[in-house]
Design brief:
By secondary structure, the protein is an alpha+beta fold. The chain has one domain. It is built from four helices and two strands; from the N terminus they run E-H-H-H-E-H. A two-stranded antiparallel sheet has the order 1-2. The mean pLDDT is 92.
Length: 72
């Protein structure tokens, strides 16, 4: 798994994961459960990682750019 990006908001991570999956890109949030237990852990662990399997980098970067543009 490759880390596509790290976010500081769990809801944003959920949205990005949904966008990736809607584009046919498997996505995983390995820190999801930890951050749901206590949101203050997000800063302690360095953010919420959004990970994808190898081989999806190019398509995932396009989705990430779209996500960033829509988040402004």
């Amino acid at each position: 798994m490759l880390t596509l990006t790290t976010l500081s908001d769990l809801n944003e991570a959920f949205i990005l994961r949904s966008m990736l999956e809607a584009s046919g890109i498997p996505a995983f949030l390995p820190d999801e459960n930890t951050c749901q237990v206590d949101w203050m852990y997000i800063n302690a662990i360095g953010g919420i990682r959004v990970q994808i399997p190898e081989g999806f980098e190019e398509e995932a970067r396009v989705v990430l750019e779209q996500f960033k543009a829509e988040s402004k």
